């Protein structure tokens, strides 16, 4: 093998790692920008939305201080999200979801990163489909009921306290389930996004039809270094991959690319 044949793959790998570091910076900036736009709406959906399934009945919501209601941003969100899935897969989870950012930050000090292939990490991600089934049941079978009283007071945290005080049992169970999984993220990194999120399961289902994605080339030697740096504990174009791109800079062979998969 000639020197040129040895040097070229190394140079390519270095270029890919540099591109990956730059991409990771852009991702963080994008996450912060999206939080500024829909962060409050996301927060209201968990703590003050009177419906069992938040974010999808904003046009009927009496919480007039919620940004989703004020700016009708939910229309644009639910129109753009399906288009984003067909274009770039589950990228919303890795680049734009405010809840995803919160879970990623909580996962930094987590005791269990769960970034190895084993029976649990293989089957636990199917739990989010159960979450989707419950959400669909609430919406279609129960008719998306209001399960708490949307208290109108000026101070946000006081409103949250009153909401919990006057909420129905199903709303309390739903909210405690979500908050419990988010808190679990301090122990098992990204537990909510990986194992329970209904929206994540919906995007996961349709991401296989996306035009562009991160994927492994034939240079991959299965070292799994990409999995060890992935916040979702996966590899490119596999289950729970959110196209975040953080794996690019970790690949020693430059085997990870973005675009149309050959």
Report on the structure:
By secondary structure, this protein is mostly helical. It has one domain (3-146, 154-259). Helices cover 56% and strands 3% of the residues. It contains twelve helices and two strands; from the N terminus they run αααααααααααβαβ. The protein has helices spanning 3-47, 67-70, 73-88, 91-95, 98-107, 119-123, 127-141, 156-166, 169-184, 191-195, 198-206, 225-229, and strands spanning 213-216, 256-259. Strands 1-2 form a two-stranded antiparallel ribbon. It is elongated and about 60 Å long. The model is unreliable at 1-8 (pLDDT under 50).
Write a short abstract of this structure.
The chain has 262 residues and is mostly helical.
Give me some keywords for this one.
3% strand; 262 residues; elongated; mainly alpha; disordered N terminus; 12 helices
- Helix/strand order: HHHHHHHHHHHEHE
Count of alpha/pi helices: 12
Strand portion: under 5%
Helix content: 55-70%
| Low-confidence segments | 1-8
Overall pLDDT score: 89
Ends apart, CA distance between termini: 27 Å
Let me know the largest β-sheet. Answer: 2 strands, antiparallel
Strands, count: 2
The tally of structural domains comes to 1
Reconstruct the topology from this structure:
Elements: H1 3-47, H2 67-70, H3 73-88, H4 91-95, H5 98-107, H6 119-123, H7 127-141, H8 156-166, H9 169-184, H10 191-195, H11 198-206, E1 213-216, H12 225-229, E2 256-259
Antiparallel strand pairs: 1-2
Helix pairs in contact: 7-11
């Amino acid at each position: 093998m000639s020197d040129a044949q040895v040097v070229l793959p190394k140079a390519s790998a270095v270029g890919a790692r540099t591109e990956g570091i730059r991409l990771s910076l852009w991702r963080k900036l994008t996450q912060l920008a999206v939080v500024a736009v829909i962060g409050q709406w996301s927060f209201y959906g968990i703590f003050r939305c009177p419906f069992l399934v938040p974010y999808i009945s904003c046009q009927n919501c009496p919480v007039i201080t919620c940004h989703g209601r004020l700016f009708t941003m939910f229309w644009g969100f639910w129109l753009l999200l399906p288009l984003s899935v067909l274009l770039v897969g589950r990228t919303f989870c890795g680049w734009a979801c405010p809840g995803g950012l919160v879970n990623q930050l909580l996962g930094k000090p987590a005791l269990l990163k769960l970034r190895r292939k084993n029976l649990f990490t293989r089957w636990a991600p199917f739990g989010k489909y159960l979450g989707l089934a419950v959400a669909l049941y609430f919406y279609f079978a129960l008719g998306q009921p209001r399960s708490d009283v949307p208290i109108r007071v000026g101070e946000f945290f006081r409103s949250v306290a009153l909401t919990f005080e006057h909420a129905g049992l199903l709303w309390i169970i739903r909210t405690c389930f979500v908050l419990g999984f988010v808190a679990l993220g301090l122990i098992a990194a990204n537990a909510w996004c990986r194992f329970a999120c209904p929206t994540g399961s919906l995007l996961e289902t349709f991401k296989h039809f996306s035009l562009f994605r991160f994927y492994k080339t034939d240079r991959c030697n299965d070292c799994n270094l990409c999995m060890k740096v992935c916040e979702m504990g996966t590899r490119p174009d596999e289950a729970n991959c959110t196209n975040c791109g953080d794996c690019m800079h970790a690949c020693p062979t430059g085997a990870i690319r973005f675009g149309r998969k050959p």
